[in-house]
Amino acid sequence: MEGINFNQIGVSFKGSGSYVPDQILTNSKISQKVDTSNEWIKSRTGISERRISSLGDNVTEMGYKAALTAIEMANWDIKTIDLIVLATSTPNDLFGSAPSIQAKLGAANAVAFDLTAACSGFLFALISASQFLKGGGGFKRAIVIGADQLSSFVDWNDRGSCILFGDGAGALAIEATNEFDNLIGFDMRTDGERGSFLNLPSKNTKGSIIDNIDFLSGAFSPIQMNGQEVYKFAVREVPIILEKLLKKMNYTSDKVDWLVLHQANQRILDSVGERLKIPGEKILSNLEKYGNTSAATIPLVIDEAIRNNRIKQNDIIATSGFGAGLSWGAALIKWG
Ligand code: UT7
Predict the structure, then answer these.
(1) Contacts of 108 (CB under 8 A, 6+ apart)
(2) What is the pLDDT of residues 293-319, one digit of tens each?
(3) Ligand 1 pocket: which of 25, 33, 42, 44 to mutate (most atoms within 8 A of CB)
(4) Could you tell me which of 268, 265, 279 has the C-alpha nearest to residue 239?
């Protein structure tokens, strides 16, 4: 953490990266497992296929590969990275997977830790890392990673949820600046009262250590989701938080170049775009190929758009993550 500069007033966006496992699970293959069809999944969600981790594709591996490509785009010496924040709900080590990504990268001067906020995780991690960069504590360069392996926690017999999720990772490289702030504004919310709509709860079975002293062995139940309630929550809250943020920052939706929403369901993307009067060609979507990769969706779709020359320097991105918690958030970004 060299080069402490108390004038760091903002962040700039320097690079992006992503990684998805090779294994492809198509809708028609899912229909061999549960009572569903390609037509039903495609028309209700927009998803055609998703990637599924196999051995060797855990959150550390996927996050590492996404981070490395972001660092290459930023053209950074890895030793200059001060901070690595990994948003994930599915670490391959419950004590945290970020330090193992740090070790694989060889980012010896960074501090690395996990942050959990389900599908809002990447946005919450980006905002948190930005506060470190602006906070005067000497943090100058950060890698923010979203990586999840929900396929390990999906109930593959529940057709109401198993069709949605896939695995992957994305990362952004951000740097402190003393001239401007390209994280123009943000907002974050949670509502634990509605938390039961989407859970990945612990499932403890009672064991005995010695006579009269019990312990609860650690394990998790598969994802439990009330799809209709999560859908209603998303189409109601996401436009509200984005509209408020745009207003607060004196922006109108016609100034937005790209609407980047958590990739949950194409119908949610369309509905939010309609409400904000942002046309379809400005709404980034890749859920047809990857489904809902939880904390990874936002950096994954941003990275794809940057590498396809869609997002360009100085483009304005309105982004929103939402999901379990319930949690949701929004950020207004200028790329570059
Ligand atoms: O990061 C956040 C993660 N979660 C979400 O984003 C979830 C948001 N919710 C959704 O995307 C949608 O609610 C789903 C795609 C999960 C479900 O779509 P829906 O249009 O809300 O369907 P529904 O739950 O209202 O079910 C309608 C019908 C039901 O049959 P009946 O009772 O009308 O006979 C379901 O049993 O569709 C049936 N159904 C299916 N049929 C074929 C539910 N899942 C399936 C399926 N294939 N996979």
Answers:
(1) 79, 102
(2) 999 999 999 999 999 999 999 999 999
(3) 44
(4) 268
Residue 9 pLDDT level (bands cut at 50, 70, 90): confident
162 classed as catalytic: no
Query: Tokens 């100034």 map to which residue?
Result: 255
Identify the bridge partners of residue 208 per DSSP, sorted by sequence position.
214
CA-wise closest residue to 258 among 149, 182, 332, 163: 332
Instruction: Report the C-alpha gap between 160 and 262 in whole angstroms.
Output: 19
Instruction: Tell me: pLDDT of 159 over 60.
Output: yes
Q: In angstroms, rounded to a whole number, what is the distance separating the alpha carbons of residues 91 and 86?
A: 9
Q: Would residue 292 show up in a list of annotated catalytic residues for this protein?
A: yes
Residue nearest to atom 44 of ligand 1 (CA): 160
Give whole-number Cα distances, 247 to 50, 241, 252, in Å. Answer: 36, 10, 7
Paired tokens of 217: 């062995």
Distance (Å) from CA 224 to ligand 1 centroid = 13
* C-alpha distances out from residue 123 to 3, 130, 145, 315, Å: 27, 11, 10, 18
* Predicted pLDDT at 8: 75
Identified catalytic residue from 27, 58, 92, 119: 119
Phi, psi of 323, deg, nearest 5:
165, -145
**Residues contacting ligand 1 via CB (< 6 Å):** 36, 40-41, 44-45, 119, 159-160, 163-164, 225, 227-228, 230-231, 264-265, 292, 323
Q: Which domains does the chain have, with CATH numbers?
A: 10-180 (3.40.47.10), 184-193+223-334 (3.40.47.10)
The predicted-structure confidence for 176-201, as pLDDT tens digits, reads as follows 999 999 999 999 999 999 999 999 99
